[in-house]
Amino acid sequence: MKVGRAYFTLFISFLIFELFQKIFLFYSQKNVITECTEIKNYILYEKRYESAKRSIVGLKNDNFVCYFNSLIQALYFQNDFMKGLFLYEHTKEQRCIFILKELLEQMLNDRIVNTSVYLKEILELDSNFEYFKFGCFEDAGTCLDIIFLRILKEIDVKKFSDLNNVTNKYFPINLYLFQMKTTYLCVECLEKNIIYGDNYNLVLYLENSIQESINKSFNVESIQCYKNKFKDEIHYAKILREFVNLPSSIIIKNTHDPSSNGNVWIDEEIIVQNQKYSFKACVFYVKDLHYYTVAVLDNNYYELNDNSVKNLNIESIENLGFSDIPDILFYEKCNSKI
């Protein structure tokens, strides 16, 4: 009996060993398959979506959607955005990401797209967008807010407490989202307040040049102290702004009133906290209610004005003569720092 039980115990142990071995092999193969799939997807992306082979096409302007067309063209010309978007494995609930993929896929296939259909789909995803009037001329900056807020909602951005630890699979965060630290300091009142805020675009009052506007915004600013404990005399506090983390790409939004002129120098390269960024695209506002885009891809500059595409014979955005207002600018991080 004891011998029989010993054999039975040995047999059961063997079965358990075999079972664990098969489970281990299954998950090992699954991980290998997942890694192979990711590598395959990356190779397919590199072959199909590499900038050298990317089609440059115009877009139809139905229902006054030049503002949307200009934004789509600006995003289309950014390699990091395109790479992140098409490598991102979206779920069926992430409709905005899917819609953008479908639209940009059409452009990659050299098709002139009626973008109003896609914009209408995006606006219908959320009842909070009802203030945005489809079929009327709207603001490009507001439209960009809608797109990005929807994407951030779909990937549940609130669950990330540390932006520096976000993985590449959450592409909109890694590319654009940053945290800004604002310090309010009054020596007289011994008052110090620090405020942190997350955003995806840098809002600036643009004047003279992009770089000068950045420098002015991040210089120490003196304002009248709001606390003012000493009522008999006015004194001043200091405000200092700085990035907690620098994004891979910076979107700059101009706060110029539409009646302003376009006399702003667009720098080919800008420096933010010792980090260089290079120009990728600019959405221009025309005073008679119109938007168009100028963008660069592989050192070739293009003007994209709805269904019109023009190859600009310039070596830098700084060579472009224009009088329209730079409304939204896209800059991409360079490898080098200063």
TrEMBL record:
Residues 57-334 form the USP domain. Pfam families: UCH (PF00443). The chain crosses the membrane at residues 7-27. The keyword Cell wall biogenesis/degradation does not apply. Signal peptide: none annotated. InterPro entries: Papain-like_cys_pep_sf, Peptidase_C19_UCH, USP. This is USP domain-containing protein. It comes from Hamiltosporidium tvaerminnensis.
